[in-house]
Amino acid sequence: VFDGSRAGQKIAANIYRPRVQTSGEGAKRVTLLLAHANGFHKELWEPSLEHLFAHSTKQCFVAEAVALDGYNHGDSAVLNRQSVTGETFSPWFLSARDILAVLSQLGGSRSVVGIGHSWGASSLLLAEIISPLSFAAIIATDPVLFTEPNANDEISAMTMKRRAVWDSESAARNYFDSHPFFGAWDARIRGLHIKHGLEPAATADTDERLVLKCRPDNEAAVYRGALHASPFTTSNLWQIQCPTAFLTGELSHLSPPQHIVKITSDMRDCTRVVMPGAGHLLVQEDPDGAADHYTKLLDSFAPKLPCSTANL
User: Fold this and answer.
1) pLDDT, position 107
2) What distance in Å separates the CA atoms of residue 78 and residue 72, rounded to the nearest whole number?
3) Which of 166, 212, 226, 242 could form a disulfide with 230 if both were Cys (CB 3.0 to 4.6 A apart)?
4) How do 2-3 and 10-11 pair as beta strands?
5) What is the pLDDT of residues 83-115, one digit of tens each?
6) Is the CB of residue 130 less than 8 Å from the CB of residue 95?
7) Which residues form a coiled coil (predicted)?
8) Which residues on adjacent β-strands are paired with residue 211?
9) Structure confidence by residue, pLDDT tens digits, 129-184
10) Rounded to 5 degrees, what angle do the CA atoms 294, 298, 304 make?
């Protein structure tokens, strides 16, 4: 558990390490810092990480991966429940500052590569703009990068109507397995979401009800928080100095490939990769495919990364 950027708030994290080293001799040693999409949580990175560790790059050795829960998501929301209850606006500048706070607590001379998805990707980019060269490299997976202020009013309203409570674990499982939105996810991701994205709705042992750790009002607050932060990030991408890759879904409605090409044209060290047939939630729908792209991108970053021997 790390301290957040605001006094008293905590950032929950999981640290993952490969069981064996599969990289080549002399491979660059890196630490991954993972930031999830809005409404989700750190454990949803596990299938991608498992695949990445099993197919590690020839030139990069991922020594550890630090997956964070946003301050009002997952286990962070549980820790910060009193301060996040009833919030209506969650500025993305705050999530960027939380990421920088975690980086400062990691310490050491390690090479940190940020991998983020959607809101998490935008937050990593914003953190790098605020504090240049905080990362050795960044992989932004379908980031949300508006060119004009956008409070996401429509999706925020839809989120507030989302179901958040189930009578039992089996009821939750039936819901997620049968729902068209969640049914498109990899089965491992759905299982992890039920296991780690829900918590008991009451303290009574006889009450089996489960509720989302990230309440609908928290998720909606994050959508609204894009208002000025997202266009600020977009207009300042040119300031990013570290190698940056954009992995976008071919069918993404939030980050169409042609939009990414347009807004990144002034970046100094930018790679653009399109995942065929994928939509915005490519990490949830095809975690192994996403990991394959991460592996290739890490390999391409290797010659530009500093040497590091630090461990967590």
Assistant:
1) 79
2) 8
3) 226
4) antiparallel
5) 999 899 999 999 999 999 999 999 777 799 999
6) no
7) none
8) 165, 199
9) 999 999 999 999 999 999 988 878 888 889 999 899 999 999 999 999 999 999 89
10) 155
Q: How many Å separate Cα 245 from the centre of its chain?
A: 15
Q: Where are the domains of the chain?
A: 2-151+226-304
Three state DSSP letters for 192-250: HHHHHCEEECCCCCCCCCEEECCCHHHHHHHHHCHHHHHHHHHHCHHHCCCCEEEEEEC
* DSSP helix/strand/coil, 263: helix
Class of domain 2-151+226-304: alpha beta
Where b means 16+ CB within 10 Å and e means fewer, 256-288 reads bbebbeebbeebeebbebbbeebbbbbbbbbbe
Read off the pLDDT of residues 277-308 as tens digits, 9 standing for 90 and up: 999 999 999 999 999 999 999 999 988 887 65
Query: Which residue type occupies 39?
Result: G
Whether 10 and 92 have beta carbons less than 8 Å apart is answered as no
Cβ neighbour number for residue 253 with a 10 Å cutoff = 9
Encode pLDDT of 269-278 as tens digits.
Answer: 999 999 999 9
Neighbours of 147 (CB within 10 A): 12
Identify residue 161 by its one-letter amino acid code. Answer: K
pLDDT range class, residue 204, cuts 50, 70, 90: low
Under a CB-based contact definition with an 8 Å cutoff, are residues 197 and 215 in contact? no
Q: Which helix (H) or strand (E) segment is 47 a member of?
A: helix 46-54
Which two three-digit tokens encode residue 94?
A: 């705050």
